[in-house]
């Protein structure tokens, strides 16, 4: 795959920019594992974000009914269109846009080697739209944060939100050597399946953001230090509210709290605001 990728890039005068997340997968075994875990059929409508020159797009098109391939780089998108035309694959719609700013098409699966610099915003955008399953590649460290448990070093606000929104698991890791150009970090492929009828209170999102800005501090101190993240609550008012809550919980470290604990704390604060 490496020689094929280099040939296509050279023929089309494309120079990849690692700063834009342009690291193309060049290991056919990894590509096959992504397709296998995607469990595709001709009934599937698939969204791919960061399609590039079509390394993943083409096998997706061969196995799914419809593919929406989003690629912000117009030059790479034109190469992809030419490759699809040559292979007579007419079930792909190439969309030249920034995936974080567009309305996502209606699909049942999202399969992508994501540009790592948009990992967080695009993940939450995907979760806000209906889908059945996603198989996504991330930077390894980011993937570990997605599935971390309370008390783990990688436990974060992202871990909490992922737990509430979906069932997620790391399927396998991917070496730096499986890409061109070679990135400085390892990667991992995650499978996500959304939980049904999830409705997250925006107030909870604010409270959680406030707490995890200081995740190693006691909850009371983390909240007070980031009071400005919680709506129009004044610092003095928040101190009064905290004094009325369960003091055992208020003295716990943020990173040790389960998502359920954090939901309870947020709900108690909201009642007193």
TrEMBL record:
Molecular function GO terms recorded: RNA binding; rRNA (adenine-N6,N6-)-dimethyltransferase activity
User: What residue stretches are annotated with the Ribosomal RNA adenine methylase transferase N-terminal domain?
Assistant: 30-196
Question: Where, subcellularly, is it found?
Answer: Cytoplasm
List of residues binding S-adenosyl-L-methionine:
23, 25, 50, 71, 98, 113
Quote the EC number. 2.1.1.-
What the entry lists under SMART domains is as follows:
rADc
Keywords attached to this Swiss-Prot or TrEMBL record, sorted alphabetically, are: Cytoplasm, Methyltransferase, RNA-binding, rRNA processing, S-adenosyl-L-methionine, Transferase
Q: Which enzyme class, named as a word?
A: transferase
Listed under GO cellular component are:
cytoplasm
What the entry lists under Gene3D superfamilies is as follows: Ribosomal RNA adenine dimethylase-like, domain 2 (1.10.8.100), Vaccinia Virus protein VP39 (3.40.50.150)
- Read off the PANTHER family from this record: DIMETHYLADENOSINE TRANSFERASE, DIMETHYLADENOSINE TRANSFERASE-RELATED
**Task performed by this protein:** Specifically dimethylates two adjacent adenosines in the loop of a conserved hairpin near the 3'-end of 16S rRNA in the 30S particle. May play a critical role in biogenesis of 30S subunits.
Task: Please report which protein family the annotation says this sequence is part of.
Answer: Belongs to the class I-like SAM-binding methyltransferase superfamily. rRNA adenine N(6)-methyltransferase family. RsmA subfamily.
Q: What is this protein called?
A: Probable ribosomal RNA small subunit methyltransferase A
* Source organism (scientific name): Methanobacterium lacus (strain AL-21)
Which classification does the entry list for the species?
Archaea, Methanobacteriati, Methanobacteriota, Methanomada group, Methanobacteria
């Amino acid at each position: 795959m490496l020689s094929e990728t280099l040939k296509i890039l050279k023929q089309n005068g494309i120079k990849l920019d690692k700063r834009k997340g342009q690291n193309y997968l060049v290991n056919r075994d990894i590509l096959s594992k992504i397709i296998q875990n995607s469990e595709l059929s001709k009934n599937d409508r698939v969204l791919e974000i960061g399609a590039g020159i079509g390394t993943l797009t083409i096998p997706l098109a061969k196995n799914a009914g419809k593919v929406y391939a989003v690629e912000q780089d117009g030059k790479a998108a034109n190469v992809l269109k030419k490759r699809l035309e040559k292979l007579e694959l007419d079930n792909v719609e190439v969309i030249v846009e920034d995936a974080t700013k567009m309305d996502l098409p209606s699909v049942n699966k999202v399969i992508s080697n994501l540009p790592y610099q948009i990992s967080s915003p695009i993940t939450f955008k995907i979760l806000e739209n209906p889908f059945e399953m996603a198989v996504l590649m991330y930077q390894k460290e980011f993937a570990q944060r997605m599935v971390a448990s309370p008390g783990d070093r990688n436990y974060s606000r992202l871990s909490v939100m992922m737990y509430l929104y979906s069932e997620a698991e790391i399927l396998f890791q991917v070496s730096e050597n499986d890409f061109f150009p070679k990135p400085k970090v390892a990667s991992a492929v995650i499978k996500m399946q959304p939980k049904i009828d999830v409705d997250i209170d925006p107030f909870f999102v604010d409270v959680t953001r406030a707490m995890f800005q200081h995740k190693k501090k006691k909850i009371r101190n983390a909240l007070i230090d980031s009071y400005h993240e919680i709506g129009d609550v004044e610092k003095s008012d928040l101190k009064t509210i905290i004094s009325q809550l369960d003091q055992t919980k208020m003295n716990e470290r943020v990173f040790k709290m389960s998502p359920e604990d954090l939901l309870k704390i947020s709900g108690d604060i909201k009642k007193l605001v």
